[in-house]
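Mods, move this if it's the wrong board.
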Amino acid sequence: MLTSTWGAGEAHASGIGDKYHSHTDLYTKLPNGEGTEYTRRYRRHEMADDDMALSSPYIRTMIMAMHGGGIEPGTSELCLGIAGYDPRDLTARPAGGPVYDYWMFEGLRKPSQSNPGVPSNRELHVTAKNCDDHVALSMAASSLNVLSLHGCTAEQAGAPAKRPEAVVIGGRNTAFQRYLTEELRAAGFQTVDGATKPDLNGDHVRNPCNRTMLGKGGQLELTTELRRSMFKTFSQTGRRTSYNDAFRKFTDACRAAIIRLEAGPDQVIR
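Not the wrong board. Structure tokens:
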């Protein structure tokens, strides 16, 4: 990705342009960076099945934001919203609604417009297929479904100049793609078939969204304009508290697609 005014640049699947070739590489070379330059946040819901006669419910789906914080702005907040949590204080939203496991890697570096030499959040980008964070991969491997959120440019998504707000829908789970497309279009969002955008389609087998129990998942690439439209203040500190109705419509549409997916016949662990 190339640095832009909003801190999000061009998405890419090849790893070309990445400073770190894996998360292990990043963690090793920035040993004191966690909490100041980057952070990892996740929630794995506690589940127990001590009943010898019946099977207890289990979490089927997890949400990921691999380039959250200042790397691809807005994806952290969307990850939390789709997982069922208010980005402001992590309370469940809506109360009593389904909640999902989530994992996020977030860039915490403050942007500097005056000093180009200051390390940018862009440098913290690790291409999805090169993710080797053990928590992220273990959570994906023990989930039936993953929905991974990313950022891209309108040009990459093929969105028209007059309507640059768009989302590219990819991943290897074709049913999930269909449900996401239908729900997001019904909510008024412009969608793009990931199959027409090879660099954004998220179909690589090593992409964490596909490293699930079923070997397939879903990926969303949102243009900067679409992400920006979901917040009154599109800054690193402002997004957490300034999301709007477009944000709610988008997260609700994704949650509706997950509910449809989880009702399928392949969503039962025996």
